[in-house]
Amino acid sequence: KKPYQTADVRTESTAQNGSWRGIALLLLLLISLLALLRSSYTISTNYYSSIDDIKSSSIVIPLVANDSTSIAAKTTSEPHQIISSESLPIYLIDASNINHTNIAASTWGDIAPHWNRTAQFSNLLSHATTVSSLPNKYNNNANSKKRRQIILIHCGPKLGSTTLRQACTKNLYRTCPQINYTTYTNFAERHEWGPAGYFGGNRLISVMNKCVDTNYFCVKQMTMLPPTTTTTTTTTDESNNIATTAAMTQNVEYIHLFPFRNYNDWVRSAIKQQYDRGGEIRCRRVMELWDGGKCQHDRNEIDIRKYSRVDLDRFQDGVVRRMNQLGERGKEEHTFLLYLHRDLQRVMELVSTTYQMPMFPGTGEKLKGTRPEGTCNESLVEQYHECFSDDLMEFRWDLPENQLWKPDGAFLMMSPKSSNQQG
User: Fold this and answer.
1) Is 252 helix (H, G, I), strand (E, B) or coil?
2) Considering all CA atoms of the chain, what is the largest pairwise distance in Å, rounded to the nearest integer?
3) Chain CA centroid to CA 84, Å
4) Taking the CA of residue 61 as centre, how many other CA atoms within 13 Å lie in the half-sphere pointing to its CB?
5) Which residues, other chains included, contact 269 with Cβ-Cβ below 8 Å and sequence gap of 6+?
6) Cβ atoms within 10 A of the Cβ of 377, count?
7) 8 A C-beta contact, residue 143 and residue 359
8) Is 338 in a helix, a strand, or coil?
9) CA 152, CA 221: separation in Å to the nearest integer?
């Protein structure tokens, strides 16, 4: 029996040693797990701390914002851009219902892909969310500093520009009699019957700064320069140095109104305008620009560069770049409103009420409401579309051949080379 007893003791001892080793291994695993959890907690804490640091170093530039929407844009002191064209807020004003004007909020990134040749205003509205009012955060908030609000009405051919030019001219004379309009009217403005500052640049800045009681200004194909750009223009009327940083960085909210019109409808109306101006002779002159695949831009109405989608795309790109470069120095803000061009008067009534401004008179007139019979041959419409319409959705307005030509004195906030071009 003793051999059997010895074997039992050894077996029991071996079992006890194995048990202790198992416990030790389990403890080791627990210690390793605790260390791993602690490391993970430290990483997580540091991550959220970094996020808080980023948030605390940011400033919010509400390009458009009010109590009914959280749409806003952020920028930091870091050089990379935070505001983007895709997230740029756009407010759409729907005045189709005579009893009630609806307002919807969207972004350029949401509506731009749907603004094609056949798009109607209702198509863009379907990609927007209804809100209760236009943005007016600063002047309705008792805790915020009041800002001067300037309505910049962006004009384009066959979009009510004749009515707007006349209304803006009369409004300037009435609200700002203290300035000498002979000084503020150059050849281009006289030629197009444009109000003072119609072509932007130093002329517009000077008029806005002197006419502090004027709320509405009309502009044509204006482009926003970066804040670091300083440009000199020489005209027959004046020679000034434009320091855009000093001139535009003010405690101002710029409220931009852009008109919408169906593209195909706009093309036909612009081509008819050529017939109204010079009959078949004028039609043939336009045809010569497009014959043989030349597809040269026309300087008058039938010019894709002046269509509101291209105009808005070019302008918003400049604003986005400018706001990102301004960063913490930025004291200006930009609100974008899009409206159906035939609803101009009701839109101006809404703007006047929302921003507590006097009504902008003269917008109910239809200065080209009655037009003569006749138009250019249908083949000219087809020729135009073959030349330009395929580029509508991705128009390269940044290419040299697509730059808008400006006559002397009609310099916008654009590149210096444009000031010497004739058109």
Assistant:
1) strand
2) 131
3) 10
4) 31
5) 158, 301
6) 14
7) no
8) strand
9) 11
Number of H-type helices and E-type strands within the chain: 12, 11
Any idea what DSSP says for residue 66? B
Instruction: State how far the Cα of 255 lies from the Cα of 138, in Å rounded to an integer.
Output: 13
For residue 194, the 8-state DSSP code is P
CA distances from 313 to 148, 393, 417 (A): 25, 10, 21
The answer to whether the beta carbons of residues 283 and 274 sit under 8 Å apart is: yes
Please name the residue that has the structure tokens 């620009």: 289
Tokens 């080379």 found at: 417
Tokens of 258: 């852009």
Instruction: Tell me if 84 sits within 8 A of 127, measured CB to CB.
Output: no
Q: Which two tokens stand for residue 136?
A: 């007016």
- 3-class DSSP state of 373: coil
Judge whether 203 and 196 are in contact, CB under 8 Å: yes
The conformational region for residue 114 under phi > 0 = left, psi -120 to 50 = alpha, else beta, is alpha
Tens digit of pLDDT per residue, the chain (423 long)?
A: 344 344 444 444 554 555 666 777 777 777 776 665 554 443 333 333 333 332 222 222 333 333 333 233 332 223 434 579 999 999 999 998 888 899 999 999 999 999 999 999 999 999 999 999 998 866 555 555 578 899 999 999 999 999 999 999 999 999 999 887 776 666 667 666 789 888 887 888 889 999 999 999 999 988 777 665 444 433 333 333 333 334 454 678 899 999 999 999 999 999 999 999 999 999 999 999 999 889 999 888 999 999 999 999 999 998 998 888 877 665 678 999 999 999 999 999 999 999 999 999 988 776 666 778 999 999 999 999 999 999 999 998 888 888 875 433 333 333 222 333 333
Contact (Cβ atoms closer than 8 angstroms) between residue 247 and residue 326:
no
As given in the structure block, the two tokens for residue 41 are: 């907690």
Give the three-state DSSP class for 391: helix
Distance (Å, rounded) from C-alpha 257 to C-alpha 124? 16
**DSSP calls for 168-184:** HHHHHHHH-TTS-TTTT
Return the SS3 of 104. Answer: strand
Helices marked H in 99-160: 108-111, 121-125, 137-140
> Does an H or E element contain 274, and which?
helix 263-290
Structure-block tokens of residue 279: 């009959």
Phi first, then psi: what are they for 338, rounded to 5°?
A: -120, 130
Q: Tokens standing for 23? A: 């416990």
- Letter string b/e over residues 411-420, b meaning 16 or more CB atoms within 10 A of that residue's CB: bbbbeeebbe
